[in-house]
Fold this protein.
Amino acid sequence: MSCASKEEEQQRPNILYIMTDDHTQQALHAYGHGLLDKVYFPNMNRLAKEGALFKNSFVTNSICAPSRAVLLTGKYSHLNGKIDNVTPFNWDQATYPKILQASGYETALIGKIHLEGKPQGYKYSLTLLGRGITTILNLSKMVRRN
């Protein structure tokens, strides 16, 4: 239930954030390069054409888990505490899903997060156990946390 009027709710955009892993912009045809075959990602190309495409972007940490922590918190790794793939992530800190949820959005996390612990800020989550490294192809090892 929301305190916002129907008009305000209708003006609010839907947000679908998809994080892909281990490639550069040159990997997808949506960026005009296509090192990966177009056949593998036709829906990603369609989403990019119909939505926002970041053509001038940079990372503050290129390591998998710390990079995800930076995106979740908006803080550099030395400030959010996730400096490598081993150090635990503190889910108690502010993250964009928590902010969206507090603003009335329904949030969900599905797939590999590579940050151990119980994700916070999501109404629904279905993630791979642990960091998801050894279970990425075994979907029976996914855990629902809501």
The longest strand covers residues 124-128. The chain is about 25% helix and 10% strand. The mean pLDDT is 80. Residues 126 and 144 are 4 Å apart (CA to CA).
